[in-house]
Structures are given as C-alpha cells and as structure tokens.
Amino acid sequence: xxxxxxxxxxxxxxxxxxxxxxxxxxxxxxxxxxxxxxxxxxxxxxxxxxxxxxxxxxxxxxxxxxxxxxxxxxxxxxxxxxxxxxxxxxxxxxxxxxxxxxxxxxxxxxxxxxxxxxxxxxxxxxxxxxxxxxxxxxxxxxxxxxxxxxxxxxxxxxxxxxxxxxxxxxxxxxxxxxxxxxxxxxxxxxxxxxxxxxxxxxxxxxxxxxxxxxxxxxxxxxxxxxxxxxxxxxxxxxxxxxxxxxxxxxxxxxxxxxxxxxxxxxxxxxxxxxxx
Length: 276
Hints:
21% strand
C-alpha cells in the first residue's frame, strides 16, 4: 500500500522522477502588456487540475503557502501580478485587475488545450484573497467553465468603498501611489469603483454561481474587509443556490496571520473534495 503524505504539512512521499514537481517562470500576455508570474507544476504526468491564484491590493500577501499546499495536493498553481503591479507591464487599475484575472484563466486553459505543462484545460479553478477574492468571485460568476471558486476575505468593492468618507478620499496619504503599483493610489481605487458601480457591483453577478462550487472564507477579526462588507455577497451566493457552497468563518485577521495552517487545511480539503 502506497504511503500518502499530508499535503498541508508534508512533502510528497514519492516523486515521479520523470514528471517531478517544478516551477516555470513565465509571462502572461494581457491587452498588449506582459504580466510576470510562475506556474507551480504538480507531481506526476497529469494532466492536472490547475488553480489561478489572485492576490489582493497591492499584493504584499502572496499566499504562496496555499499555492504550495495545493501543488502538493495535485493541483498546478499559477501565480502572477496584474498589469502595473510589481514590475508587470501596463497600467494598474481596478478594471484591469478583473480583465487580467480572466486573461490568466484563458492563458492556462489554452496551454492545457495545447497539451502543455500538464494542465487539464477542463479543470481550471480560481482562488483569491482580499481584492483578489473579489476578482475570483467576479471571474467565477461570469466564466461558467471554471470548475471551482474560492474567495478568502473577499473585498466586495462597491460596499467597501462606500464606507470611506469623502474627507478621507481627498486626504494626502490616500492619494499617494501605493508601493508596488504603477502610480495607482487607494484614492484612485475609490474613485474608479464609484465611477461605475453597476460594472463593479458583485452581488447581481452572484446568480452565476447557481449549481456551481463556491467557498467563501472570512476572519472574524478582519478590520480591513469586515464581515459586514462580505455579508451581501455571501447572502447572494446562498440565494443563487451555489452548490456545493461552503461558508467558513475563522478566528483570524485579514491575512489569517495566526491561522495559516488551518486556512491551508480548509482550502485544500474542500478543493480536494470538489474541484478535481
């Protein structure tokens, strides 16, 4: 009987030496620009289910521990930076984040169709944190070919920016460029979201999850994206009939700072059961 390692806490018990785990540095083309990233390839010949990881604003927390755990569980994982973020070409904007998330999904899907990098093009999922969680929900709701969606502390942008007072939007520090982004500030994010609330509204789009797998994880100590901001999208997921739908609230802050192993356990276990 073969020995099975715990993907959350252990390295693989055996390695397929002909098709070992690996890392491919790459760029993802998006609307004339190149987004830098890398693909963690899983152990074995595959083709493997593949996860597109979406980071937040600006992306200091990369959640690569989750990417590694998912890779050990048999998922390829793509990590990349949106246009204008962390050295990627092009200009950063909220609209571009959503476009780039869709572009990254299409990129790995096409590589899989071409028989490249051990990717199964029919099993592509998205996992996002914070603003990336919002992007994951927006992408998962509209792309019906996505297998699973996992949103961690999703920053539902319209209600989130509604909590910012007008006097704070004009504050000097609010309008200073955020480190890691190409001249884009938190004030720019607020103004962009407020300029087209119909386009950026998440709740009406949650109907796209009817009968489709969805997991939303939150921290009850989150002060960046409080539970109150996430409530409307969670309620909309339930009303839409997402299936299976897993709603998990953990004793955690926005970055799940003291719950990283528990977070990885929750994501890997749920995806292992529903996203293959």
